[in-house]
Amino acid sequence: MTTAVVPRILLIEDDASIRRFVRLALEDEGWQVFEAETAKRGLIEAASRQPDAVVLDLGLPDADGKQVITELRSWSQLPVLVLSAREREEEKVAALDAGADDYLSKPFGVPELLARLRVMLRRRQLSPQGGATASQVSFGTVVVDLASHEVRRGDEVVHLTPIEFRLLAALIAGQGRVLTHRQLLLQVWGPEYLDRPHYLRVHMANLRQKIEENAAQPQFLMTELQVGYRLSLKPLT
């Protein structure tokens, strides 16, 4: 008989009432929670406790939460879910660009918090060290062979341009994370194209025409308004 592994979550939040609310919600799920109320303490806890994921507030008393993400990313691929009352798209983009995996605005509901954490934990189980994606990836009826650059939808071969394939491969490597416009432009085109977001829109539209059953109602190549795109790997129901 195997024992279920209990997720270990580090909560970095300076508001005691929110810390208590989140801790109780996670403990009700049977998860183990560690707490920190400052950026400095949070980084120490992240290094010493080796949690499975971090829930992070941006408005900490001793540093901006984005600085915590940047510091974490210098030595760890630990999943980070940002909780913040900052609702401006610029803040979300900046946190994601810094290396956050997801962003949840306050106020938030417990079911959504738990769902987002479960997704992050599943991704960590699939790639515990942030390693390379498997050579062959499938979603819906689409099968992508990253080694041979072959893409099939059902029994048909899908012919992608080199740019379209690099864009699809970047989304696959993101493993369901939201990738900002800036991240995708850097990865697919390079730094000299950061001021050309229309390139991304055009090629994403073309990719949807080839990959999705209905490009107007995509099931996999999802838009996060004014932020970026993500690949949804949820099984079809």
Please describe the topology of this protein.
Blueprint: E1 8-12, H1 16-28, E2 32-36, H2 39-49, E3 53-57, H3 65-73, E4 80-84, H4 89-98, E5 102-105, H5 110-126, E6 136-139, E7 142-145, E8 150-153, E9 156-158, H6 162-173, E10 179-180, H7 181-188, H8 197-211, E11 221-224, E12 228-231
Parallel strand pairs: 1-2, 1-3, 3-4, 4-5
Antiparallel strand pairs: 6-7, 7-8, 8-9, 10-12, 11-12
Domain Response regulatory: 8-121
DNA-binding region: 134-233
Keywords: Cytoplasm, DNA-binding, Phosphoprotein, Transcription, Transcription regulation, Two-component regulatory system
Defining key terms:
237 residues, Rossmann fold, 40% helix, globular, DNA-binding, cytoplasm, WH-like_DNA-bd_sf, phosphoprotein, transcription regulation
How does this structure look, described?
With 237 residues, this protein is of the alpha/beta class. The protein folds into 2 domains: 8-126, Rossmann fold, CATH 3.40.50; 136-231, Arc Repressor Mutant, subunit A, CATH 1.10.10.10. The protein has helices spanning 16-28, 39-49, 65-73, 89-98, 110-126, 162-173, 181-188, 197-211, and strands at 8-12, 32-36, 53-57, 80-84, 102-105, 136-139, 142-145, 150-153, 156-158, 179-180, 221-224, 228-231. The strands form 3 sheets. The protein has a 5-stranded parallel beta sheet, with helices on both faces. The chain has a 4-stranded antiparallel beta sheet with strand order 6-7-8-9, with no helix packed on it. Strands 10-12-11 form a 3-stranded antiparallel beta sheet. Helix 6 (162-173) packs across helix 8. The longest helix is centred in the middle third of the chain and has 17 residues, at 110-126. The radius of gyration is 19 Å and the shape is globular. The two termini are 31 Å apart. The model is unreliable at 128-133 (pLDDT under 50). Residues 134-233 form the OmpR/PhoB-type domain. Its main location: cytoplasm.
